[in-house]
Design goal:
The protein is globular, with a radius of gyration of 12 Å. The protein is of the alpha+beta class. The protein has one domain (3-67). The protein has 3 helices and 2 strands. It has a two-stranded antiparallel sheet with strand order 1-2. The chain has helices at residues 3-10, 16-20, 52-67, and strands at 29-32, 47-50. The relative contact order is 0.20. The structure holds zinc ion (ZN). Zinc ion (ZN) binds next to helix 2 and helix 3.
């Protein structure tokens, strides 16, 4: 089974950030919780399913942090 499908099944097909806020949103993207460039690893424990909206917001935040030379 591919990683993406394994994570999707583990996370019940739901966006984990929305879920943490009590919203049930179908997830679209498997993302690294802690980005690889910030020292995150490629294990399942560091991956989660996000919807496009959460993924885009997280990516934008991380890009800003990265551009300023910081690490989350
Ligand atoms: Zn979401």
């Amino acid at each position: 089974m591919r990683d993406r499908e394994r994570i999707r099944q583990r996370d019940c097909g739901l966006c984990q950030q929305c879920r943490a806020q009590g919203r049930l949103t179908l997830g679209d993207v498997v993302d690294h919780k802690k980005p690889l460039w910030a020292g995150g690893d490629d294990s399942d424990a560091n991956k989660w399913l996000l919807c496009h909206q959460c993924h885009d917001a997280k990516t934008a935040t991380e890009a800003a942090i990265r551009a300023s030379g910081g690490v989350p």
